[in-house]
Structure formats: structure tokens, C-alpha cells
Amino acid sequence: xxxxxDEIPKHKTIHFIGIGGVGMSGLARILLxxxxxxxxxxxxxxxxxxxxxxxxxxxxxxxxxxxxRLADIVVVSSxxxxxxxxxxxxxxxxxxxxxxxxxxxxxxxSFKHRIAVCGTHGKTTTSAxxxxxxxxxxKLPTFVIGADVHDYGINAVLGDPDFFVAESDESxxxxxxxxxxxxxxxxxxxxxxxxYGSLENLKDHFLRFMEGIxxxxxxxxINADDPMLYELGQQFPSTSVQWYGCNPxxxxxxxxxxxxxxxxxxxxxxxxxNNGPVELTLMGAHQVYNSLAVIAMCHRLxxxxxxxxxxxxxxxxxxxxxxxxxxxxxxxxxxxxxxHPTEIRVTLEAxxxxxxxxxxxxxQPHRYSRTKDLLAxxxxxFSAADLTMITEIYSVNETxxxxxxxxxxxxxxxxxxxxxxFFVPKKSDLARKLIPMLLPGDVVVLMGAGDxxxxxxxxxxxxxxxxxxxxxxxxx
Length: 476
Fold this sequence. Notes:
By secondary structure, the chain is α/β, with parallel strands linked by helices. The chain has helices at 22-33, 47-55, 85-92, 100-108, 123-136, 193-196, 199-215, 227-233, 285-300, 305-314, 341-355, 368-373, 378-381, 407-415, 430-434, 453-475; strands at residues 13-17, 37-42, 58-61, 73-76, 97-99, 113-118, 142-149, 154-157, 163-167, 182-185, 219-223, 241-244, 252-260, 263-270, 273-279, 323-328, 331-336, 359-363, 387-390, 421-423, 443-447. The strands form four sheets. The protein has a seven-stranded mixed beta sheet with strand order 8-7-9-6-10-11-12, sandwiched between helices. Strands 16-17-21-18-19-20 form a six-stranded mixed beta sheet, with helices on both faces.
């Protein structure tokens, strides 16, 4: 049964299983700032749990049914298995259990403008840009986003009551619990087949989500250059849809895209008028689409264009989205969350276009199910890289699929004529094997949604140590 936020009394305790997760921690933070009682458990202490503890959350490390002794409501994400002792205990004792997406929908209900950012790729960045631009327009929104936003240093903020910006995760279908007034749709591809089973079922969920928005007299902000989204959007009245893209026929479109080491720049056209340049500190053509989505929304809401452009120009990115980890010896190390072939391709192309340097990609596949479903698409995703290293699959607690290994991607790439690709099974060996191969001017990007991020700081530290040794030997 759907709950409203006001129906959860503030003397009740809301318990999060896996509270340190970036999506869960954002919701917990907003609840704490609204004086709700929050408890939660996770396997270890992280920056997210430390932040929540400082806000007053009761935290437990390790999963145990005893952690639920204060719990009146239990929140879970799709990452929590029914074998988890806390979830099993909650179900056995009939403690109400709700999904993270359901709680998010409940929290959004009291806001006038409820903005949900949806799509296979670009949700996090587009959500963060939306929050930053609204703030620059004088409308500080409440937001919950799946990564720390550099401009705020955190992933969730309790703002004014008019706007709520949510990164709407479609991975488990729970986004249908949400009732936004505005839906921003970035793109749509085959993904999360472990839940949906078929592309048609995924499309049907997106269609139902769109239908709900239109039924509430809401607005659909849709990327017209995405074939599947265009097909879905055509089923609604033109008054309910604001299209955006690079097609000159669209009322919101971009032309004259330029790529530089500082970011991307383009000419903006609204209602067939040239509205001058838009400058971003982000790299890649995909960021043009992300920014156009926000511009289209602001245009529909009659927010000032000058402030919109200013917010876009000032936006400094989010954690693990083409994030510069460090630089040493004129070698740059970036960290990126890309784990789908399309995300990998567009990020590598963006770096190559903007930096025009030798590009090295180090990739850790994420989930056996995703690797199996998209195996044929991975080899071509690395075409912009000059050298590629691929480590073994990060399982996310999935059961290993017999005979499935990242080595299959490497073998296929070599069959396609790519000789500069290496299989390094152990993540711990990546830095040791790659560093001797690096040259001044190289750009290295570490990719994946698993624990590959830890390799970036290790590489920077080793490069700096190596350069210091060389400088010392030369001075001698």
C-alpha cells in the first residue's frame, strides 16, 4: 500500500539495510534533516555512514537481526537479498518493508515540482546539472542523486519546498512508485535484463511511467535523437512533450559543437532562434544532450536563460563521472563509473576528442549477468582507446556463470585486429603492469561500477613516487 510522507510518524524509526550505499544514504540524509529517526546497517564504515552518524543516525556494522530492535519500517534496495538476516527477520516478524524507490516516491509527494531524471545513461550527471541550474536560477531544490555532486560535496540536499530532483533508478522497476510532475528522459537501451527479461518489458515500464506523468498534467522532456524514446514519446500529445536534441527541426537543439581540453561548447537554438553559446566544463557530445535536457526543462518552466547558462557553465561535475584523480609526469588519471558499452564508448570518445592524447582504458566489467547479456557489444566499445586493459568481472554477489570471463572480451577484440589489449585477471596487478607502459602525455581512465576506483589513487601515488626517484637520481 502506498504511503504518504506525513503518514510516517516522526517517533517511528526507519531502518536502512545497506545505509552506506549512495542511493540509500541520500534518502537517509533527507529524513534526518527533517527530524525523522533513522537507523541503518552496513558492512563497514564509509564516508557516507560517518556523515549520517554525525547527523544523528543509529548505525550498526555487520548485518544481524538484532539491528532491527528499534525498527518500525525497513528500507531495502534491489541489492539486498532475501537471505540477508535483517530482511529475513523483518519479513518473519511482519515489520513493514519498502523498496528504496517507493520511499523516494513517498518523499517527493509534498513538493510542487517533482522532477525525475530517467534513462539508461546520464541520469546522475543530468540530475546534478538540474539541481545546480535550478539553484543558480534562485530555486534551491531538494535533491537525491546517485553520486556526490562536486558543487555541494554531498549527494543529497534538503532545499526549498517547490522543487525535488530525483535520479530515478529503473533497475528494479520501483521507479513506477514515483509520481513526478516532470520526467526528463535521457536515452533508452537494453539494460537490467536480469530484472526485465526482455527489452519490450523494459520499454513497457518506461511507457507506463510516461503515462503516469501525462495523466497528472505533467511534462515529458525527451531526447528526440534516441530512437526508442522517440517512439514512446510520439504516443502522447505534443503539448505534453518538450523534445530536445541536435535535429534543427526541434524547438530546443544544439549546433556547432566544439570539443576542447576545457570542455564542450555549442550554439543553442530555442523556438528557431539562435540563443548564443553554451559552455560546459564537461567533455563529450553526450554532455551536450545532458545539458539540453535541463535547458529544455528550464525553458518550459520559463526560468531565465542567462541564469540557466550560468549554472551550466559553473557546474563542476559529480564523483566518478570522468573525475580527475591526479596527475604526475604529465600523465593524467581519470576515474569513471561507465559499465555499459555505450557509456564506455561515449566517455572514451569524449576524452580522445577533447584531450587528443594517447588514451589508455582500464576496465572492470560489472555483474556476470550484464557481461553475458552485452558480451557482443563490449569489444567495439573500446575503439577510441589506444591501449586497453581488462580485469576480471566484479560479481556484485551474483553467482558466477560457468565459462564466462572478461577474457572473452579480450579474445574477441584481438580477433577483430586490436593487438593492444591485455587481460589482467587480478585487479591488484593492474598498476604494476600498466605503469611501466605509460609515457608522458598519456591519459588513463579507470572504468567500472565496482571497486576499480581504488586503483586510481594507487596509480597516482606510484607514479609520483617513481617521478620523485627519477628526480632524485638526476640531482645526484
